[in-house]
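Predict the holo structure. Ligand: magnesium ion.
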Amino acid sequence: MSKIKTAFFCQNCGTQSPKWVGKCPSCGEWNTFVEEVVQKSTEGLKPSASTRMSKPRLISDLNAGDHQRIPIVDQELHRVLGGGLVPGSLILFGGEPGIGKSTLMLQLALKQLNLSVLYVSGEESEEQIKMRVERLGFDNPRCLVLMETALENILLHLEDTQPDLLIIDSIQTLTSSGIESSPGSVSQVRECTTKLMKFAKESGTAVFLIGHITKEGTLAGPKVLEHMVDCVLQFEGDRHHIYRLLRTSKNRFGSTNELGIYEMQGTGLREVSNPSEILINAQSEQLSGTAIAATMEGLRPLLVEIQALASTAVYGTPQRSTTGFDIRRLNMLLAVLEKRCGFRLGMKDVFLNIAGGIRLEDPAMDLAVITAILSSSEDLVVPSSICFAGEVGLSGEIRPVTRIEQRVNEAAKLGFKEIYISKFNKSSDIKNAEIKVHRISKVEELFSSLFG
Ligand code: TYD
Ligand code: MG
């Protein structure tokens, strides 16, 4: 037996170093190097007999028909993955603790009646899983469950069961016997993922890896993990709210623009197929300080309610606070209103909230944001049949936004009567709109047109 070899790994980016260093030369983080045992295998340097050598081939000779996608029962996941599951793909599914990762994956395992599924849990006991299954209220006779954290044992079971779909909850709990460092460390995570990737490619089993997220909001484990897998899905939302968003940050089989929306209920996650209807408060009484923004999340039009409260500051320094919206953007919009349009907001507290607890970044929300602020500040009600889509520039001009036709059509579909957009959006983009389209070029025009 050769001597045990150790090396130091940056826990942030995975950089390897023979000695301990205080600052990672690659990612610049401090104090992230941890000693881990590595076992250098002497084999692998020469091509082994088991690996098939591949030859260079003409691109025109390549065969694309290999990817027969499997339809997923869950429509949101189906769409986010780019239209179904590709056999042999490796998908990393990340999210904060308690957001609902295990719930969504177990639901997928139970609903997918056309596939044989193996759900491996290293985090929960049999009783916990059973209780959750009862709570979800589905049953799949072809779904197997395994409580195991040793990767080699899992691989043995995989040979026997040959599932179509494998779910690992979570990659940070697995240990491979070849590596002696603790579960969740960079080298363990990397080794286990490499072995599972090999298994997925050889067997054609689609593999979902649940991954934890660090405090900073990135997937725990090295960046190399994201390079290795085919898709990276992220599950996000506010734990205290019921809505959850499913996004892709990498997808080798489709676009990363798709967005899935779920609602956490007592009996699991429900797909939200018509999100705009729930993100707008259906109130009979109309209040000042709210405006509806026609936003896009990826390729999906979404109408959301923006709520603002502007009141005289009680303390010397006015407070600005937002939920679901970038606070720097709010400060910028307030400065534009103050400087370019003469509204006295400098001495007011301003609070801004996107209904439903979701976080959005579409610049087209600007117009609705300033409308909500002005509506609250002047105590004038914006009729609920109007919505807005436009970006506000530093000189108070309303700038055009992308995919205006989809936004207008979505607003019309949901029964809005009027929409305010930028004058600079090409009129050819909006053909036969079914609602009244107001085109404006400046914030002042908005105010005079809305409130007279
Ligand atoms: P979980 O899937 O365990 O989160 P993760 O695996 O991402 O850590 O879900 C945790 C939360 O979801 C838990 O706090 C309770 C809630 N929940 C429901 O509200 N309804 C349900 O039907 C289930 C199963 C969970
Ligand atoms: Mg979990």
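The domain at 69-273 is CATH 3.40.50.300 (Rossmann fold). The longest helix spans residues 186-203.
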